[in-house]
Amino acid sequence: VYPAHGPATHRGPQALAEQLEHRRDREAQVLQALSEGAATVLEVVDRVYTDVPAAMHGYAALSVRSILRRLELHERVRVDGDRIRPV
């Protein structure tokens, strides 16, 4: 498996399972941030990506937007311009 970042690995199934778990964890963190009052992508990034250098927050915002698209498709959030709210 050749991940988006990090070295290639021969542990394909395990690496994919770990990535899926990480994505589920991030989604839960986004929902938690929203439930605690975050209402914009940048507010979510500030609350969720505390382990990521600020210089990388632009990339984190792209990831949050992807998570929000999925959550919106599943009718768990509503995105209106820059504003986000749980449904």
What is the strand and helix layout of this fold?
Layout: H1 12-35, H2 41-48, H3 57-73, E1 77-80, E2 83-86
Antiparallel strand pairs: 1-2
* CA-based gyration radius: 14 Å
Give me the side-by-side strand order of the main sheet.
1-2
Please provide the count of β strands: 2
Low-confidence stretches: none
Architecture overview:
This protein is 56% helix and 9% strand. With 87 residues, it is mainly alpha-helical. Strands 1-2 form a two-stranded antiparallel sheet. Strand 1 (77-80) and strand 2 (83-86) form a beta hairpin. Helix 1 packs across helix 2 (41-48) and helix 2 (41-48) crosses helix 3 (57-73). The chain is globular, with a radius of gyration of 14 Å.
Summary?
The protein is mainly α and 87 residues long. The protein is 56% helix and 9% strand. The longest helix has 24 residues, at 12-35.
Q: What are the salient characteristics of this protein?
A:
3 helices; globular; mainly alpha; single chain; 87 residues
